[in-house]
Amino acid sequence: LGQQQAFTIFDQICQGLAAGHKQGVIHRDVKPGNILFDDNGKAIVADFSIAKAVQMSTVVATTGSVGFAGTPSYMPPEMWDEGVVTPAVDQYSLACVLFEMLTGRKLFEGETTSKIMHSHFSPVILPETIPVGLRAILKKALAFEPGDRFSSIDEFRRAIEIYVKNGLIPGPTPVITPLVEPSAYRREEISNQAKK
Predict the structure, then answer these.
(1) Pairing, β 25-26 against β 52-53
(2) Sign of CA dihedral 45, 47, 50, 56
(3) Do 139 and 132 contact (CB within 8 A), yes or no?
(4) What is the pLDDT confidence band of residue 70, given thresholds at 50, 70 and 90?
(5) What is the distance between the alpha carbons of residues 119 and 111, in angstroms, rounded to a whole number?
(6) Can you state the percent helix, strand and coil of the chain, rounding each to 5?
(7) d(Cα 86, Cα 135) in Å, to the nearest integer?
(8) Closest CA to 159 of 144, 139, 145
(9) Which residues are within 8 A (CB) of 26 and not within 5 positions of it... i.e. 6 or more apart?
């Protein structure tokens, strides 16, 4: 995909997710396979079959033989850990999808589910081929802690919109704040919990 096409698809996905979030519904499995296109070529988020109301905010994601409440390459750390579901999980997954549209490869890969899981608990390293401003936006949406991500899908969408228009993050106070990566101990602790 070209960058402009990727950003257009991203914007359309945001609209669908934001509408769901305003109704208290979280998708929980945003991935390329769940992005369909209508007769006019507009992207539509499909398969809300595992979506849950915000009130039902816990799921169980294991590395065993049972099914996932999501897809490993797109599941944020908290879904592997405590299973707490907030709209921030869709934001993280969407950032993975946007990266994939821009680069043609998955951000989190591995030969086994366990290896994919561990990659989500490691610091996110984005290639220098992605412009600095865009990297900053993606890293915020991919923050380890949900509270460090954008406050909503709409805010994530707005940051990308500003980037597309200006090629940078405008304003005297940057929209993108520096990320504080979880300590190695914290990542190991959570990773161990996820294995139980």
Answers:
(1) antiparallel
(2) positive
(3) no
(4) confident
(5) 11
(6) 45, 5, 45
(7) 23
(8) 139
(9) 20, 51, 52, 54, 85, 86, 87, 89, 90
Checking if the pLDDT of 30 tops 60, the result is: yes
Q: What is the pTM of this model?
A: 0.77
**Confidence class for position 69, pLDDT limits 50, 70, 90:** low
Sign of CA dihedral 68, 54, 9, 7: negative
Residue with tokens 């409440």: 69
Give me the catalytic one of 11, 29, 90, 154.
29
Residue 69 and residue 43 in contact, taking contact as beta carbons nearer than 8 Å: no
Going 184 to 72 to 20 to 53, the CA torsion angle's sign is negative
* Identity of the residue numbered 117: M
Name residue 81's amino acid: D
- Give strand pairing partners of 53: 25
Distance in angstroms (rounded) separating the CA atoms of residues 184 and 174: 27
Strand partners, 25: 53
| pLDDT at 58 exceeding the cut of 70 | no
Asked if 163 and 130 touch (Cβ cutoff 8 Å), the reply is no
Which residue reads 């797109």 in tokens?
A: 74
Q: Give yes or no: 29 in active site.
A: yes
d(CA 182, CA 185): 8
pLDDT, mean over the chain = 79
